[in-house]
Description:
Layout: E1 25-26, E2 31-36, E3 42-48, H1 58-68, E4 85-89, E5 91-92, E6 95-96, E7 101-106, H2 113-116, H3 128-135, H4 151-169, E8 172-180, E9 183-184, H5 195-199, H6 214-229, E10 236-243, H7 257-266, E11 271-276, H8 287-290, E12 294-298, E13 304-308, E14 316-317, E15 320-321, E16 326-332, E17 342-345, E18 351-354, H9 365-390
Antiparallel strand pairs: 1-2, 2-3, 3-7, 4-7, 5-6, 8-9, 8-10, 10-16, 11-16, 12-13, 14-15, 17-18
Helix pairs in contact: 1-4, 1-9, 4-9, 7-9
Amino acid sequence: MDSLKCPVAAGGATDTLPPGMAGNSFGQAFRITTAGESHGPGNVVIIDGCPSGLALSVEDLLVDLDRRKPGQSRLVTQRQESDTPEILSGVFEGRTTGTSLAILIRNEDQRSRDYSAIKDKYRPGHADFTYDAKYGFRDYRGGGRSSARETVARVAAGVVAKKVISEAFGGKVVGYVKQVGTIVARVDEPEAVTLAQVETFPDGSPNIVRCPDVERAHEMIELIDRVRKDQDSIGGVSEIVASNVPAGLGEPVFDKLKADLAKALFSLPAVVGVEYGSGFASVVQRGSEHNDEFFAQQSATGMRNIRTRSNRHGGMLGGISSGMPIVVRAAIKPTSSLSREQRTVTDGGDETTIVTKGRHDPCLLPRFVPIGEAMMAIVLADHYLRLRGQRPA
């Protein structure tokens, strides 16, 4: 590639310098910036705006990093990464200092040789072609920056965000697998689902699919096993729930809470749809069916809290949190990397076939859960700190 020739200049543009990658930061008051690739030395996140005084240790970070890491069960990629974080700055004597936090997670088990045979081929479902179209150059090893490996940094930031909302208003975020293929879990009270139900079956064995409906969970595991043996993959839906969120988070126009949550989730690899509350099901309802009626609930302190009798609005009205649980769902596509032969073209436009070697998830849902939780927590922490900054002392 001519390093001074813009890959999109053929359309008539006069610029000659190839574009750089923007958009590596997210948030305003609680702002994260990430860097790293699938087969590079590691992934790092820098967090600005974290309040001082929060207890934070490597052990705290490992709780969610272990839930996300590869190799944890037969249902996920067998790449072996310890994902042990290194806190480089922003913590002193076990507490955040209020300065920028930097957290590094090194890559340990890259197998770049798995990609050498396909470096000139465009993998169906991946960003290989679009990266070439935009930048004219890409890291072909595991997808580089487009790989879900970059989400390890987001999960680390999500742990910090969870601590912020927990200390600020008792906020809690729990995600789980709602659907795999055509198998749909029954979860009547999303806000009542606990982390223990997501992670462990009643008999104490690991819930490797992270679905709280035990019967459906076993069916999902069997389905993923069948798909894996068929050298294929399958998608599904993850539901993410935030509880104890106060009313008033979010801005009413462009920075609606629902808009930022949608952007946060859509920024994740493999997410193809986002809905909240009754979502797309509301299109067949009448207003009288969809509206949530208000009532006043007497608290233990004598305060009258305004609540709704149902929660079809998913905890957000007018883009602002209502005080009800925030319920969001993300649709996740099947893993694009397949070990079965598919048709494609080379970067020169020649027709060919491709078999993607390496270690890949037959279903992304089990490892997506802590990633989705992280992004919801980051949005809530950001909007809480923004609201705090708007209010007089």
